[in-house]
Amino acid sequence: MSVSIPWSALLSEASYVEVTSLRLTVQPRQRVKSGTSMFESMWSSMTSSMQLAQECLQEDAKYAGNSQPLEGVELFAQTIDSILCRVKVRFIDTVIRLEHVPLDSSTGVAIEVCIKILNIQMKLD
């Protein structure tokens, strides 16, 4: 894996991440039936740039002894978004394998996706 971050021009130039020869195997855990779906669980665990900015500024304010106005949080969140929307990721020679083994079974099924090259540019809406 290689990462290139333009520290001197972080707010105007792209950051690059390149991952080579990644082998990722995912085996979903058997879930107990509940009222929430897997998607709802994943969605609730994601952090927005606004939440991230607020947490950073709260941590900073704890040591500085003052509180940050909402305007400062919004500006910090916009800065985070500005950096993230220019992140470019490239996967080279990647295999993603999804396995499913039913409960009380010694065998299961799997699907593999082989990716020669995948370029991703982050976009925030």
Detailed description of the structure:
By secondary structure, this protein is of the alpha/beta class. Helix content is 31%, strand content 32%. Helix 2 crosses helix 3. The chain has helices at 38-45, 49-64, 70-84; strands at residues 2-4, 15-20, 23-26, 87-100, 109-121. It has one domain (2-31, 39-121). The model has no long low-confidence stretch (mean pLDDT 82). Strands 1, 2, 3, 4 and 5 form a 5-stranded mixed sheet that branches.
What is the secondary structure topology, with strand pairs?
Elements (H helix, E strand, L loop, with lengths): L1 E3 L10 E6 L2 E4 L11 H8 L3 H16 L5 H15 L2 E14 L8 E13 L4
Parallel strand pairs: 2-4, 3-4
Antiparallel strand pairs: 1-2, 4-5
